[in-house]
Amino acid sequence: METFNNFIGGTVTLFGDPIGILIFFGGVVGGMLFGAIPGVSMLTLAAILLPFTAHLSAEHGIMLFSVIYCTGVYGGAITAILFNIPGAPENAPTAFDGYPMTLDGRAGKAVGAAVMCSAIGGTISCVIMMFATAPIAGWAIRAFGPPEIFALVFFGLAVAASVGAKTFWKGWLSIMAGLMIAVVGLDPVGGIERYNFDMPYLAAGIHFIPTILGFFAVSEIFVQAEKKATGAYKAPELSVDFPTFKELWLHKIAVIRSIIIGFFCGILPGIGATLAAFMGYNEAVRWSKDRLSFGKGKIEGVISSETANNSATGAAMIPLLALGLPGGALTAMMVGVFQMHDMEPGPLVFINSPDLVWVVFAAMFFANLSILLVGFLEAKTIVNLLRIPFQFLAPMILLLATVCSYAVRGLVIDVVVMFVAGVAGFFLRRSGYSVAGIVLGLILGKIGEQTFAQAMQMLHFEFTGFFNRPIALGLLIAGFITIGASVYGAFFKKSDVQQSEA
Amino acid sequence: MSKLKFSHYFELFFWLMLVLVFFGYSFEFNKDIEIYKYGATLWPRTILLLIALAAIGQFFDQRKNGDKAASNTMAAAHEGPDSNPEHTGAAWYTSTFILLAIPFVYMTIPEKIAPLFSIEEEGLGNFKLICAAVLFIVYLGFAWRNHVGGILALPIFFAALLQDIGFYALAPVFIIGVMILMGERRATRMALVMPFIYGILLAFFVSLLYVGLPTGNIKPFYDFGNWVVTLLQ
């Protein structure tokens, strides 16, 4: 009852103030638009707005960022579905089935599923967040230290090796290639330069934004260009035929499973929505009776990925608000907003500024609900982008990607890196490797190495220390079993494709 | 019976060479870290070991099962190069490799060979422009017969020229170039679409968001870039 009263109080504060309402709707529309425009993302908008939040109250500033977070994660699904360009890494698995659906003329169904499931996942996650922030945060801080986070990263990578690539080996090699890219730059413990090949640019490491833009946006342009050159290009068909509630009801188990996966991944600092989306998708494949149709335009793939990544948004606020630990780039910027107002996120926020906490909770709840209304209207407009012929869309996307990668650090070499990654992505995709696997390895590589180093220091450099930590041990065993099963399958079992051909 | 093809041997060679080169280079940063006894090399060397194991595992799997080796649930979503036979084979790869090398030739060679022609700092810009023009003609010669290779190399060539010529002068040429390589031949449409894309991008990023794009450093492109920025901001 107290939670409900607090929620009503937060809602009244949010909508009782005209400026608050303006900021709320500005955040909803801005997050969706920036998430949906190819080449930019919610992070671009957040980075632009960060300095301006000094002129807002702390409540309005944090509320704005939390709304952008919810709607931006959904917005990235639109470009993933329509152009195979995920707005953020957490939308990458959405493209696996969303884009083939667009090519089949079912873009409307995919976008509709993304709208509904993002709203459902995000709203339920918000409700759980309101009730469970304090107890879950307490459990996570006790149960999840560096060994557990490292084990979770290992398990996530082992699972991801079986997604996206043509074979398990290529999946594993893709992830390892991503991990090697992440190694370039400074080592996380001693700050020693690695693999800089005497180039000053490489001393700071390869930035993930140009790399992601190259592997996804640019390589997709190249793949489509090759199809156009050979006459195999098939223009995506325009469709605003959204799925019915009955169609979505058939996938209720996938939605529930993805909410649970998304929430538990989202609560862990540094892991968040990306792993949530990959695991949500992979579990959908694993539990499906029709596994071979995934990757060819199965709506369940879009549902699982989008439900899981939006479920992670509510959960990601728990470590931020309760422990002061940001879970990703956007929540890290939110720490900046707190600091601009001489505040520190953490348990004291609940005591010193309960109004702020409940305004943020209420704003996130309504932002997720508004995805249903504003998302459908926006999607109907954006689907029309498909009317643009590819020969006109391609230079636009390539130039957008150029501007975005250059704007990150103001370095032309980032643009070169992006286009080289695009060419590499083109050849790797032709050979059956997974660009999503490379990107996941790149993003989780730094977290993995850092937590491994912290874990080993914590365990006094004894690997047997993992045996005393049941969660870490369980996750490591699950990871090894996943890899072992794939290796066994490679040598002693016929593959799914071979069986279907037999 | 062995089902190995040339591409399988090439894949194994590629990954093992990568492992060898990176393992060799790891001795460059093999330094002690006081608080961490494994140092900065354990993590990358472990990854390299796993890459080598996976590459060898893949090779043996391919030896037994050919291209259908350990196909997983996503196998059917992938199209191999066999689906585009025009864009495989040694001739295509050689021509594409030459096209892709052109931008890197521009990024490295002119500054190195300029002293051989007694070119000073002031004349370097014009010398680089002449090199760019020559390389562009070479590019056109290869891209004429290899459209896909041309599409792959054009954006890298564009990025290589950005520092010297600038975004503002290069973007219109790039837009037209991509449209032609994508098969557009109607001059009127290109003439209408190019200013539209260029204008929208500049209005949004330069006028509205104040993103500073490269203006170039060779005259008259540098002056043109600054003129556009002043006009928009």
**Spans where pLDDT lies below 50 across 5 or more residues of chain B:** 73-79
* Main structural class of chain B: mainly alpha
Oligomer: heterodimer
| Strand line-up of the largest beta sheet of chain A | 1-2
Enumerate how many helices of chain B there are, as a single number.
8
Strand elements of chain B, count: 0
Report strand % of chain B.
under 5%
- How much is the average pLDDT of chain A? 81
Largest interface: A-B, 85 and 81 residues
- Total beta strand runs of chain A: 2
Major sheet characteristics of chain B: none
Q: How many separate domains of chain A?
A: 1
Summarize the structure.
Chain A has 502 residues and is mostly helical. Chain A has 22 helices and two strands. The mean pLDDT of chain A is 81.
Folded structure, characterized:
The complex is a heterodimer of chains A (502) and B (233). Chain A has 502 residues and is mainly alpha-helical. Helices cover 75% and strands 1% of the residues of chain A. Chain A has one domain (2-492). Chain A has a two-stranded antiparallel ribbon with strand order 1-2. Chain A is globular, with a radius of gyration of 22 Å. Chain A starts with a helix and ends with a helix. The model of chain A has no long low-confidence stretch (mean pLDDT 81). Chain B has two domains: 6-68; 87-232, no CATH class. Chain B is 69% helix and 0% strand. Chain B has eight helices and no strands. Chains A and B meet through helix 8, strand 2, helix 10, helix 18 and helix 19 of A and helix 1, helix 2, helix 3, helix 5 and helix 6 of B.
Tag the structure with descriptive keywords.
heterodimer; A: about 500 residues; mainly alpha; two-stranded antiparallel sheet; 22 helices; about 75% helix; B: about 230 residues; 8 helices; about 0% strand; extended
Could you give the topology of this structure?
The complex is a heterodimer of chains A (502) and B (233).
Chain A: H1 2-15, H2 18-36, H3 42-49, H4 58-83, H5 92-103, H6 107-143, H7 146-160, H8 168-183, E1 185-186, E2 193-194, H9 200-203, H10 208-230, H11 245-249, H12 252-266, H13 272-287, H14 299-323, H15 329-340, H16 347-352, H17 354-382, H18 390-409, H19 412-430, H20 435-458, H21 470-492, H22 496-501
Antiparallel strand pairs in A: 1-2
Helix pairs in contact in A: 1-17, 2-3, 2-4, 2-17, 3-4, 4-5, 4-6, 4-14, 4-15, 4-17, 5-6, 5-14, 6-12, 6-14, 6-17, 7-20, 7-21, 8-20, 10-18, 10-19, 10-20, 12-13, 12-14, 13-14, 18-19
Chain B: H1 6-26, H2 42-65, H3 90-113, H4 121-143, H5 147-165, H6 167-181, H7 187-208, H8 221-232
